[in-house]
């Protein structure tokens, strides 16, 4: 009798484990007429990085900043520019998940092909603008260079499977450097500041890794007065996009 009791006691954990496993199987097994919908893991679609490199053209309005300055012989208002940016794309579903929104999991499939928010940080060299004129009657010959570090937040919305439109706003930390010969005397000066920018664009998906982007940006109050328009053609490389 004692052996039987010991056998029952020793087998009790195994019996309990079997009962728990059987209960889970019964709960997870779909009843007739019902199916269990699997929600695919779309984490990579909801969050990925991209590296952007672009070349383009910038336009600056010297006359608005310096009405006393007479361009005289020549004035370059356009220059070639280059830019490099790191972009983080994320779906609104990701924010819902972080905030614990209960419908985020079921919304993942529906929103996988919808628009994406993005955060961009980058560097742009707006180029060199040469000038040859007079300042209040004094000869002024030189070159002006503007560059900036920018941070933007924006939204990209698909038109179809390949093309998307986008808009963005942000702030820039700009630096303006001038090398000139003023009245026969070489001079150099620089100034910096913080101002806003905004832009619009159109992107085209070549494949999961590569894409193209055409953009227009306006940078406000460079050198405390000039508005600079930048038009760029960019190549993107995506890390982790599907």
Q: Layout of helices and strands, plus pairs?
A:
Layout: H1 2-28, H2 43-46, E1 47-60, H3 62-65, E2 69-75, E3 78-90, H4 92-98, H5 104-111, E4 116-135, E5 138-158, E6 163-182, E7 185-205, E8 210-222, E9 226-239
Antiparallel strand pairs: 1-3, 1-9, 2-4, 3-4, 4-5, 5-6, 6-7, 7-8, 8-9
Helix pairs in contact: 4-5
Derived from helix and strand composition plus strand pairing, the structural class reads alpha+beta
The biggest beta sheet reads:
8 strands, antiparallel, barrel
Low-confidence runs of at least 5 consecutive residues:
1-11, 24-29, 34-44, 104-112
Tally of contiguous helical segments = 5
User: In what range is the share of β-strand residues?
Assistant: over 45%
Description of the molecule:
Residues 1-11, 24-29, 34-44 and 104-112 have low confidence and may be disordered. It contains 5 helices and 9 strands; from the N terminus they run ααβαββααββββββ. The radius of gyration is 30 Å and the shape is elongated. The longest helix has 27 residues, at 2-28. Helices cover 21% and strands 59% of the residues. β8 (210-222) and β9 (226-239) form a beta hairpin. α4 (92-98) runs antiparallel to α5 (104-111). The protein has a single domain (43-239), classed as Porin. It has helices spanning 2-28, 43-46, 62-65, 92-98, 104-111, and strands at 47-60, 69-75, 78-90, 116-135, 138-158, 163-182, 185-205, 210-222, 226-239. With 242 residues, the chain is an alpha+beta fold.
């Amino acid at each position: 009798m004692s052996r039987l009791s010991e056998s029952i006691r020793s087998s009790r954990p195994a019996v309990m484990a079997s009962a728990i496993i059987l209960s889970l199987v019964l709960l997870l097994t779909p009843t007739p007429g019902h199916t269990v919908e699997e929600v695919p893991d779309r984490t990579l679609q909801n969050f990925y990085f991209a590296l952007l490199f672009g070349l383009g053209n910038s336009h600056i309005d010297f006359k608005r900043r310096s009405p006393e300055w007479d361009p005289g012989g020549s004035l370059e208002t356009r220059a070639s520019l280059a830019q490099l940016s790191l972009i983080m794309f994320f779906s609104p579903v990701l924010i819902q998940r972080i905030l614990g929104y209960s419908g985020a999991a079921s919304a993942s499939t529906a929103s996988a092909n919808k628009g994406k928010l993005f955060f961009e940080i980058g560097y742009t060299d707006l180029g060199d603008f040469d000038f040859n004129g007079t300042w209040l009657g004094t000869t002024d010959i030189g070159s002006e260079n503007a560059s900036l570090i920018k941070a933007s937040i924006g939204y990209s919305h698909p038109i179809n499977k390949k093309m998307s439109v986008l808009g963005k706003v942000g702030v820039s930390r700009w630096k303006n450097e001038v090398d000139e010969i003023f009245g026969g005397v070489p001079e150099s000066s620089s100034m910096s500041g913080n101002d806003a920018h905004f832009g619009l664009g159109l992107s085209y998906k070549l494949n999961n890794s590569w894409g193209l982007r055409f953009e227009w940006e306006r940078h406000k109050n460079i050198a405390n007065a000039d508005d600079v328009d930048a038009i760029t053609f960019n190549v993107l490389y995506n890390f982790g996009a599907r």
